[in-house]
Amino acid sequence: MKIIPAFQQEFEAEAATTRKFLALVPADKLDWQPHPKSMTIRQLATHIAEIPGWVTMAVDTDVLDFAAHPYEPAPVSSADDLLAIFDREAASGRQTLATVSEEQLDLPWEMRYGDKVLAQLTKGETIRHAFSQTTHHRAQLGVYLRLLDIPIPGSYGPSADDAAGF
Description:
The chain is mainly alpha-helical.
């Protein structure tokens, strides 16, 4: 079985669901957080919006060094800003998946902070990790939205809000 068509199918399914969640982020609550140790909804949603670009980063680079290139999230002030970031990053990831070869997915990729190695994966495993990160953080965003009394869309079937009539 070839992995790229499976990646493409999963990418599209997750992108459609993720876009629905990002569209619900309220501009007046961007600095809200459920706990002092939690990210703000702005930080969380911006991270989610940027993740589809990890597909391109995984293929086009061999290492991500946070010491050399500290993470700086894009500024956002609305759901429209989040969706613009997401659409741009998803287009990049989509294009990369359309052109990457199966052989490239076996090449090594590394995440580090200076001399400290945080992860050593193949490029394919890095893409898989990005998909997992999307699901993980989107679930967190769902909890944030629920705590703000915003109805949650279904992800892999109806949500409690969608299923009210069942």
